[in-house]
Amino acid sequence: MTSVMWFRRDLRVSDNKALYHASKEDDLILLFQVNPAQFITGSPSHQAFFASVAHFQQELAKTARLQIMFGDPMECLQQLKEAVPTWDKVFFNRDETGYGASRDAAAQQFFDEQQIEVHAFHDSYLHSAEEVKKSPTEYYKIFTPYYKKWREEIKEMPLKVTLKPENIRKESIFPKYEEQFAELVRDVPSLDNGEQAANARLASFIKEDLADYNKARDFPELDKTSHLSRYLRTGEISIRTIWQMLQQTEATEGRATFEKELCWRDFYNMIYVSFPNQKNEPIQENYRYIEWENNRVFFKRWQEGQTGFPLVDAAMRQLKETGWMHNRLRMITASFLTKDLLIDWRFGEKYFQQMLIDYDPASNIGGWQWAASTGTDAVPYFRIFNPTTQSEKFDPTGKFIRTYVKELANIPDKFIHQPEKMSKTEQKEHGIIIGKDYPLPIVDHKERRKLAIARYEFSKEHYRGNI
Ligand SMILES: Cc1cc2nc3c(=O)[nH]c(=O)nc-3n(C[C@H](O)[C@H](O)[C@H](O)COP(=O)(O)OP(=O)(O)OC[C@H]3O[C@@H](n4cnc5c(N)ncnc54)[C@H](O)[C@@H]3O)c2cc1C
């Protein structure tokens, strides 16, 4: 009898719930299935994911083999069953939302038909969507009461996984797929991948930055956040391990703030379960009638970091250069796209999907709907971020701006947030012509703010049937 451990976004051995159970089986196949339809070839986000898979495959190769399959998931499962007729048990960590959830539902049908015993687990979150609810039939919509309940719930302990290499199939079942995968990842730049790197990141964050996280986390130039998001996305680190490591540290305000961020991650997963269509549709129905301008030139300028608003530009260039963006800047750039440029948040969400090495559908859609004021418990539509004030507050000396907007590197601090305020003589003196070497602001924030508020109000009135 043969068992399959089907890896997804849980690319690790230690503290992997499904693998913990699968590792007790006598004849075990380790599987990763690549569905080309799910990936945008060449996008930094997906390249980063493949780099993690490739690293995991190499690490496992020391004692076992990660079998790779390519194609439609159901066809792959069928092929595997034909190649291994003794297959009668499957282990995996289930997805509660989006593509993963629908794939799991289809796979369940296949397993039922084939009489393959399913062992599915919740592994990715501290609490699955069903665990923290207002009542058995009602999900929370607002973060604070959710957080209160979430805090009270007991968090699971990490699991010690011991692989028995003698029980794991080492010969390649589908060599052609392994060749195909090797080709796919041939030019993929490797990041600091793997469980070891992820655990080292956690340890150094706890040692250096956790205690002051509450004070430093909002300032991009300090770079004091954990950078664990990309490891959480691929599962190179387990959320239970993170939590239990935190519990062994002194109970500081820094730690409490950090734990609350981990709760936001669970919250957005739960929101995605309760609003399965949130990628395509604003959650708040009264904001479904906003008239977006969707100006292509503006969108391109935003993507390229050429808006003339230095902090927005620095942030967008950070994303392009590194595949990651600081949380404060994600809020600022998302607000700028939707409220200042009046571009539909779904374009921004899709762009982040392609670019972010930590892309996570629940958190990304949640973040975008928050910034666009269309989500549940989102920023109110009339509280619009002023990109200049945000810049003065969170990058006071412009150190972050200067790192990514090199053409502004030498201008004095007093002009760094609004370089267009320099006189022609000052521009000459500092070796830059605004409007040529760096753009003039593409919009007038005050005017656009008024316009955005009017568009949101129109949508509300339209929804109520008053227009
Ligand atoms: C528009 C927008 C888009 C976003 N897209 C993503 C995304 O695709 N993937 C992603 O992981 N996060 C996303 N976030 C949330 C947040 O910006 C990132 O999790 C964070 O910047 C990652 O850096 P870090 O690991 O250093 O965070 P830290 O500050 O060290 O936080 C620790 C962990 O807590 C979780 N977390 C922190 N803030 C949030 C939050 N607001 N929502 C959900 N989880 C959070 C993450 O897992 C993060 O790794 C988005 C936020 C916004 C406003």
Automatic annotation (TrEMBL):
Residues 1-126 form the Photolyase/cryptochrome alpha/beta domain. Its cofactor is FAD. SUPFAM superfamilies: Cryptochrome/photolyase FAD-binding domain (SSF48173), Cryptochrome/photolyase, N-terminal domain (SSF52425). It is an enzyme of class 4 (lyase). Its EC number is 4.1.99.3. InterPro entries: Crypto/Photolyase_FAD-like_sf, Crypto/Photolyase_N_sf, Cryptochr/Photolyase_FAD-bd, Cryptochrome/DNA_photolyase_1, DNA_photolyase_1_CS_C, DNA_photolyase_N, Rossmann-like_a/b/a_fold. It comes from the Bacteria. The keyword Nucleus does not apply. GO terms for molecular function: deoxyribodipyrimidine photo-lyase activity. Keywords: Chromophore, FAD, Flavoprotein, Lyase. Belongs to the DNA photolyase family. This is Deoxyribodipyrimidine photo-lyase. It comes from Listeria cossartiae subsp. cayugensis.
